[in-house]
Amino acid sequence: MKELFGGPGRKSGLILRIGQCLFASASIGVMASASGFSAATAFCYLIASMGLQVLWSFGLACLDIHALRFNKDLYNHIVVSLFVVGDWVTATLSLAAACSSAGVMVLFAKDTNFCTVETKCSCGMFQISIAFAFVSWFLLAASSYIMFWLVASI
Amino acid sequence: MKELFGGPGRKSGLILRIGQCLFASASIGVMASASGFSAATAFCYLIASMGLQVLWSFGLACLDIHALRFNKDLYNHIVVSLFVVGDWVTATLSLAAACSSAGVMVLFAKDTNFCTVETKCSCGMFQISIAFAFVSWFLLAASSYIMFWLVASI
């Protein structure tokens, strides 16, 4: 199995996982502290999906730290196949959550005057949370491609 | 390069492309004939994205027919790499469009009473169109994985 930038048990892979965790946590934090987020199911789904991503990325970050510390080899076909399935499922759910929230946000901000009328809803914070979710998805997508490439290139 | 189910220049690949074209066209047709779709940007974006998918899948279906008819070999690294990039970009845009529309639809049908109040908006047709878009994305995602596997397994 080739050694790739961002692969499991490498420093670059660990940085990607930490980035995913941080941006997903930031997305949850900003969305949960915004008033009125529970009015839209899409925003609640964003929190749930980012929560799943935090758990998944944190788990893999711990595995990367363990592998780096004890010089373990994670380049095993079964292990990497499991990572691929988990990564792709999480990435698809994250993109779905970010896009559905973005769709609702555009409706609130552009198609209707909800944001100007309902001043108690913090539209600016919704937008920041969605932006963080997209960054987190982008980092997860990078990890997913690297993992898939590793499995396919055996 | 391995010969794979659904690969370029194969009957299974052609069936996948025709399926993508049909479901994307059906999604556009149903959405465009539903009254009040232009009220939400997400629904307009769904039409644009499905339009792009129809063009892309139709082009590749024609290439598959050409390859099958004249027994041409499309298993060329550069050609398949181009297919991979196009497939992934189109698949990501399609999923984004389907999810943003689904987010808005859930807001209309569940979070607010928009569908019961605004009876001139055909909510049922919006839902059918979004379902077609998801089927079309699923078929495109299958093609994308096969193409990516082909490129990575060289």
From TrEMBL, chains A, B:
Lineage top rank: taxon: Eukaryota
Signal peptide (from-to): none
Stretches that traverse the bilayer: 21-48, 78-108, 128-152
Recorded topology in the membrane: Multi-pass membrane protein
Keywords: Cell membrane, Membrane, Transmembrane, Transmembrane helix
Residue ranges of every copy of the Casparian strip membrane protein domain listed in the record: 8-139
Subcellular location field: Cell membrane
GO cellular component: plasma membrane
UniProt subunit comment: Homodimer and heterodimers.
Family from the record: Belongs to the Casparian strip membrane proteins (CASP) family.
Name assigned to this protein: CASP-like protein
Organism placement in taxonomy: Eukaryota, Viridiplantae, Streptophyta, Embryophyta, Tracheophyta
